[in-house]
Each structure stands twice: as structure tokens, then as C-alpha cells.
Amino acid sequence: MASTRYSLVKGERIVRSVLTTRLREYFRNDALLYIDGEEPAT
Question: What percentage of residues in the chain have a pLDDT greater than 70?
Fold first, then answer.
């Protein structure tokens, strides 16, 4: 019982880490696009 609970917690941590990294990359790309859009077109 404890082992399965530990595995679930470990899986949740992995999922959370993956989601946070994806969100960071998404927001980073969005910010870069926003900054590029603010710059005058050459």
C-alpha cells in the first residue's frame, strides 16, 4: 500500500515538473514573440 502511494506521488511530481517546464517554455516563447512584435520591422 505504501509503495503504490509512493509511486503515485513520484508520478505526480514527474507530471508536475513536465507541465511546469512546458509552461515555462511556452511563456518564454510568448514573451519573445511579444518583444519581437514590439520591435520595429526591418
Answer: 71
